[in-house]
């Protein structure tokens, strides 16, 4: 008997149990199918995509925002549970709606994280001020319990342990995220990468009186595009024909309907899954349009094809995916906002109303139009010595556009968990200045310059001011502006 392998995540994560539920349903027919399913454990759900792409597993649970850029190599089999954005407050505090949180201290988590980026947009639509922290979830839950903050944002599959803990101590209240708040988050240009699915989250685990609406990142069961159709069809059919059993196997799946299984917001469905949906009479949705087809008023996805092409995305947030690294292509953003892409074979794509071009090593964004964008971009190089991620870059651009000073943004970078993990919590002034010279200018500092900046800090100067000054040096500005002339490169 042949076998196939599945991965969901660590045994401590709900994704492991969800993958186990699929394996259990599939193995109910293993004798008839002549195929058995095995489950392996990964270090965390974030590792699953790499395991799938490397061929070490056949099927993996992958969060939708990780799937962008893999349109040519991967296909969706089933859409499953979500990581729901959850706003948690104490019942005794009296907040029942987003409007009640106006002026309150709402902790949205680490700066630049997908959770913070999503929460900030949703809360901004309701006029709610937010607090950005680098605290781990357990410390934020303690701060809420102690009354140091009025609400906290969580992102994960329900039931969430922190909700149960707060409920046991104070009575938990979960705030609806609907209407304008959900629309504000879902309509942002970043929603192409951060995939949102409106959901009425399950309430049975908390004993609540009514569902609460929210948005979140969907998880999908994914296979490589070359996985045999008959195997994929058997996997999809095992869930479609036993949907009631699927819902009973884990609380995160309790509100999954047949129609939910067939909604893919990023990748096309595998042909084997399509056959299963059609045989079961279950509708399924495939994003985008055929390669090279005309654009539409919704978000379209196009893939690289040979020869000269004119690709018009129309309205919506549209993406073109290329099969190689950016270095193999020559990209020019023209004054009329069209984009010329000379491909490795010498042919040229002309892109009209295309907001992003995805390559195997990153993505070029063409839709960023902010006077503060370059300054925000340079902060990543100065503080982290890396290319920005799209969600974080858009978050900081929006924050600075909204009135956050560049110095305050720099302070947020320096207080972030990433900065502390890179350099340590006890980074001295001398090492801090050395890191800026290397990150920004790519060289050790000259003795006079190093002495000046170290002296400035030792006399009480703020590191955030020094980071801003370094990232605004004409040498660095000239290099970065030239690099950004044809789009903003993100990891």
TrEMBL record:
Domain annotation DUF4214: ranges: 410-477
InterPro entries xrefs: DUF4214, PBS_linker_sf, TRAP_TAXI
SUPFAM superfamilies in alphabetical order: Periplasmic binding protein-like II
Gene3D superfamilies in UniProt: Periplasmic binding protein-like II (3.40.190.10), Phycobilisome linker domain (1.10.3130.20)
Superkingdom field: Bacteria
Coiled coil stretches, renumbered: none
Classification via NCBIfam families: TRAP_TAXI
The protein's name: DUF4214 domain-containing protein
Organism in which the protein naturally occurs: Salinarimonas ramus
């Amino acid at each position: 008997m042949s076998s196939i392998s599945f991965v969901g995540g660590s045994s401590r994560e709900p994704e492991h149990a969800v993958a186990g539920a699929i394996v259990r349903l599939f193995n109910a027919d293993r004798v008839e199918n002549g195929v058995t399913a095995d489950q392996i454990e990964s270090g965390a759900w974030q590792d699953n995509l790499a395991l799938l792409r490397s061929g070490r597993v056949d099927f993996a649970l992958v969060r939708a925002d990780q799937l962008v850029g893999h349109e040519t190599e991967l296909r969706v089999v089933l859409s499953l549970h979500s990581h729901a954005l959850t706003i948690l407050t104490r019942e005794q505090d009296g907040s029942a709606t987003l409007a009640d949180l106006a002026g309150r201290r709402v902790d949205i988590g680490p700066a630049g994280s997908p959770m913070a980026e999503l929460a900030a947009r949703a809360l901004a639509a309701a006029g709610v001020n937010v607090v950005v922290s680098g605290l781990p979830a357990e410390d934020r839950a303690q701060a809420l319990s102690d009354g140091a903050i009025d609400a906290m944002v969580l992102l994960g599959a329900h039931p969430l342990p922190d909700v149960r803990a707060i409920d046991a101590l104070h009575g938990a209240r979960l705030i609806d995220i609907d209407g304008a708040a959900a629309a504000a988050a879902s309509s942002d240009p970043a929603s192409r990468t951060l995939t949102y699915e409106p959901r009425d989250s399950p309430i049975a685990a908390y004993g609540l009186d009514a569902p609460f609406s929210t948005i979140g990142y969907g998880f999908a069961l994914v296979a490589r595009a070359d996985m045999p159709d008959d195997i994929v069809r058997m996997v999809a059919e095992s869930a479609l024909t036993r949907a009631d059993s699927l819902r009973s196997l884990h609380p995160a799946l309790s509100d999954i309907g047949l129609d939910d299984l067939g909604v893919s917001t990023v990748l096309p469905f595998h042909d084997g899954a399509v056959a299963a949906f059609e045989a079961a009479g279950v509708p399924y949705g495939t994003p985008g349009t055929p390669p090279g087809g005309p654009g539409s008023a919704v978000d379209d996805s196009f893939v690289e094809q040979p020869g000269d092409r004119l690709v018009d995305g129309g309205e919506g947030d549209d993406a073109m995916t290329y099969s190689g690294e950016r270095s193999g292509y020559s990209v020019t953003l023209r004054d009329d906002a069209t984009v010329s892409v000379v491909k490795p074979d010498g042919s040229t794509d002309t892109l009209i109303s295309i907001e992003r071009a995805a390559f195997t090593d990153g993505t070029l964004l063409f839709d960023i139009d902010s006077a503060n964008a370059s300054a925000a971009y340079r902060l990543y190089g100065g503080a982290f010595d890396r290319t920005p991620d799209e969600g974080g870059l858009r978050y900081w651009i929006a924050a600075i556009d909204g009135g956050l000073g560049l110095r305050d943004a720099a302070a947020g970078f320096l207080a972030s968990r990433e900065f502390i993990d890179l350099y340590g919590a006890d980074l001295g002034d001398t090492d801090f200045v050395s890191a800026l010279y290397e990150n920004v200018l790519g060289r050790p500092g000259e003795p006079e310059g190093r002495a000046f900046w170290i002296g400035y800090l030792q006399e009480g100067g703020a590191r955030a001011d020094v980071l801003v000054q370094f990232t605004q040096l004409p040498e660095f500005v000239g290099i970065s502006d030239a690099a950004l002339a044809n789009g903003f490169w993100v990891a």
